[in-house]
Protein 1
Amino acid sequence: MQNAAISIQNVSKTYATGLTALKAVNLDISPGEIFALLGPNGAGKTTLISIICGTVTKSSGTVSVAGHDNEGDFRAARSLIGLVPQELHLSIFESVWDTCAFSRMLFGKPRDDAYLEKVLRQLSLWDKRDSRIMALSGGMKRRVLIAKALAHEPRILFLDEPTAGVDVELRQDMWRIVRELRESGVTIILTTHYIEEAEDLADRVGVISKGELILVEEKKALMRKMGQKQLTLELTTPLAKLPKALAALGLTLAKEGRELVYAYDMQKPQHTIAEVLQAVTDAKVKFGDLHTEQSSLEDIFMGLVKQ
Amino acid sequence: MNLRGVWAIYNYEMARFFRTLGQSLISPVISTVLYFVVFGAAIGSRIQNIDGVSYGAFIVPGLVMLSLLTQSVSNASFGIYFPRFSGTIYEYLSAPVSPMEMVLGFVGAAASKSLLIGLIILATSAFFVPLQIAHPVWMVVFLLLTAITFSLFGFLIGLWADGFEKLQIIPLLVITPLTFLGGSFYPIGILPPFWHTVSLFNPVVYLVSGFRWSFNEVSDVSVWVSLAMTGVFLAVCLAAVSWMFRTGYRLKN
């Protein structure tokens, strides 16, 4: 893609230990999107991020950031990127303000106290600006890592498991920050274990398993395409045997005859809900309640990774 | 060139030094005073003059070099090892900072610190012996070259080490013997011919000799040979550092 924020072509990585972490990965990230990279532990998520950011050397392939090769033109490429690592890597003796000012300078940007103040306020760190990092809680340290990554006004932000080990309140705060950043035009790539996070935030989802990118899809399309819906009827009197007419429609008995279940594809259901209910009424089966369930991204994900 | 990035690294490293200024300065000053008491006042009074220079004055350049070498190596090795150990190295590697700019920041700061300590030791020694510096410009040249060369060497150790023990072992097993056997406390000319020849393979001999010459024009080898050998060692360290960065050795997977 010509104007991709990030273009990854045929990137492979084999570590010195012989472990192959990535196998010929191809991926384009569009400017301004939130892309969620899902995968189990050890799938290669962090390796892929590290290669783009320059902390791990790739074995083959090319990576370009807004058209700049990330090795040949590393200055231009890296200037655009902010990286929030998975681990809380911070120099604990420094103050919040100093460490953020350091990050900005390291990236070659002139001092801008007003901007730094804005970032610290956005992350609720302003009151802690003079605190030493060792005095902060784990959640606060994670905010500091984000502030450091934002200190040089990056156009692309990488969040490697931003909400691992973070309490509910902070997680929601993170999501709010991510949305705000996207509104300001920042492209965001996040890796996560929490499927709900991807489901809630992402525009597109990539699933990585055993070093291979096995799926990249618009989240909505993915949910539509792979989403299964299920209708459950709770029967007033349990059925010993499923009437033939209902079995023909694809219904099944569950919970020792106390439930009738109909699983269908949302895109092209073989029978409408009305048809199914009519058939149930015709068979003189009485039900007290009914509900439908839609498979979540988590179910889809588990299904994919297990294959 | 990302000069701001270099300055950020340099400043950060210097701030670490000034935060612990007391510790950083007191220990080298105390050990220098002890050397002067033992070698200068106690034993030195029984040693005859060397090439017309009193023993106390003779050991001043050696003592300054001793501190300069050990401080350069320990400052620079710790400076780069600590971010590797704590994981904060990720930020340096993902920043638009070239390997050489990183070296400039880290090694520049380490060399500055050891230069400061060297100058303070020189000032301390002025309380014990009358100081005379025949060639101040040469003195500064040798101070600078030594501080830079051994800070580079320390940087290499900091990159190579994968534990705190390794960080200590090279200074202990290599630097200390080389300095003690490098003519810090005696002219190598008084050694038997065999050991004299062996000494000529010790790079510290050339540093101390050139440095001493700048004080009182007493030297083991010609000042030009000293200068050339220091240059060679500097070039070797530079080559090794750039090889390490090219291959990503111990920095990147």
Protein 2
Amino acid sequence: MRWGVTLGVTLLVLLIILFELPALRQKPLRDKIAFFSLLLCGWVLAQFDLPNMAGPVTWLNELFKPWGNLMKK
Amino acid sequence: MLEKGKISAFQMAVLMYPTIVATALLTVPSITAAYADNDLWLSPIWASLIGFVTVLVVDALHRRYPQKTIIQYSEHILGKLLGKAFGAFLMLLYVLLTALVVRIYAEFLVGSFLTQTPIVVVISTMLLLCAFAVRGGVEVIARAATAFSPFFVLPLLLLIVLLFTDFQLDRIFPIMADGVGPSLKGALIPQGWFTEYMLLAFLLPFLTDREKGRKWGVLSVFAVMLTLLISNLIVLFLFGTDVATMLYPLMAAARYVSFADFFENLESLVMAIWIMGAFIKISVFYYATALGSAQLLNLSDYRPIVLPLGFLITLFSFWSIPSLMETSKFDVAVFPFLGPLVLTLLPLLLLLLSFVRPARQEGKSS
Amino acid sequence: MKRILLTLLMMSLLFLGGCWDRTEINDLAIITGAAIDAADDNQIELSVQVFIPRALSAGRGSTSSGGNLTLVKSAKGASIADAIALLQTKIPRKIFWGHCEVFIFGEDMAKRGIAEEMDFLVRHPQPRERAYMFVSKGKAAKTLELRPELERYSSEVIREMSDMHIGMLVTIIQLKEMLRGKSNAAALPLIDVMPPPNEAKGLETAPYIMGTAVFRKGKMVGEINEKATRGVMWIRGEVERYTVTAKLKNVQGTVSLNPIHSDIKFIPSIRNGQWQMTIKAKTEGDVVQNGTNLDMSNPEMIKLVEKAFQQDIEDRIELALKQVQHEMKADIFDFATDFYREYPQEWKAAKNNWDEIFPNVKVITDIHAYVRRPGLVTLPGGIPEEEVREK
């Protein structure tokens, strides 16, 4: 059902890797780990139906609810 | 040092100006008007106070820890573990804030001009552009901002000239009919924007003339305040308290221009300016995120993580934001409190702590 | 490696080229005017005047007076948005509102209420905030079908006329403000079609502004004629190019003045529960025709003219107030806002009763009229010197 998205995101990730790889080769291991784990995070996140999922904005909304209600007219 | 570029204090001020104003100009007048009615022009004045405080706090911190960004000195002040936690929290917040800025930028474009274009295309192309600016370093962004700034200020003055005959100056009355309350409540919204001056914590270490940082920071806040004041007055004189119902009052003002029967429909101008402003704003946020994250993770360079971060930002710009109404809700109900709390109070706390635990590891700093 | 990247970059151009919002001008049906009429079953009928670009390029010879530069199409629907969707099926090009500068409500539509349709005009990104709004006597669609002789199409005629401030000029944004404002009342220019010179030239005529339609709570409640409209415009301070012809007391003939400048001030006051509005006006004019035997170079004679001038304005204002304030009870002068500005607290307490207060607001006029210049001659232009009255 969301195969198109998965495919597109994978392609995008591959493109980013391809673009960065030459420069990344000379960098320390730490940089490589950070680079790949960030991409992995993104790839995993992209598999979800993000707009309709509870996320940081929802949590912050909950957290600030008492104050947010102040702004209601 | 991860960043080898240097900018002048003046460039920093010019850089921060569109960073705050770009999104503030567009949506803030209407949200402010919803609370302040025709006192909406007073609100930026109250709101700017927190901007001055933020600049002073960040500058004071910078003076205690020159050459360091907030991510680095928070580790010195809070200790390694707490400092890292603080940094991680800040960086996550910055990813989210950047994402929201991109989203609002794209919503405006898609809602008013490119009605057929999928929003993800607008978001990702802008982020790609910004990614290259960010990879270029702080110098590139600052130079772009310096080049674009005149285009940012002049159209506003042009609007005043072209719309002057349509202004109804008496709309400003009664001033403070219900006391200072409504305008203060209206100020809650723009003060969130002013707290974004915390970004200076990522720029101050790269100044060539560091002693002028405070002066230009304060001047920049003042310029932003003045701009918001003027733009609020323009829309008030033009539309009255009806501003509150408009999503993008300043764009409506530009569309209202009709001068000598042919000088009309300036909204494409507003769009062009706004894309420029959004580019600077997103780049600065994006840059702070990339630089801060690299420092947090002790990387040797921030450039490799720019694109992966951009990917994350794209995703965050959708995460639990199904509609424009959701971003507006965030702007009204969360950011006015989140901003001052995290971007002004936490640095202030850091500053106080840095006095209590006087430079424990300062000698060790590299 | 570089080559692969370059290829990929170039490939990405393929995606960028296909702008989703690309619209070529020859794919657009440019609307120059729109009419909204009431239809049966609570529906509306939307008629649009579409510009025909080909008619313009076909050469001037064939498109001289009477040639059709526009065509009119209509569709019925539950709302404007609904009607547009239906209309689009009848027009091969994409409907484009960005150049629509005239919106006309039919009389029946105006009486039914315009609030619902206003929402579309301010919400949709295409209609211009500065587009002019009108109410038409009878059906609005007929105005669009006219083939005026002087201008290219009928909506341009009424737009140009409004620009001269002959009648009221109300833009979308101003109408929105009136409808949402404190006074609950609105006024729109009322247009009608001039009777054609003869039967054969049925459509070769033009619309003109005949008065003002008065709205209360978004519904048209009445109309005032051209003369009372002048009074309304006087009060609203909108009079610009317009000639006052005043009859002097005990003198034969009239004097015409062309007011150049007028300055209106509203001074609200509330005393012992009596709401009162003082209209202070200072107006100046030049003599453009003197049909009397008075010497226009004599300041004393000018005093007489000024008096008549002042009387004329007072009469007009009175006429406007009588019809609008006492008969229709619609606050189209926006006294409400003036009271709010001066007495915010009292206003707050009384705002729900404004409809009852407004007809009883006591209006005092305080008008100062001045004649500044006599024109190019001093003595009356058409009578022997002996007959000129100097005192």
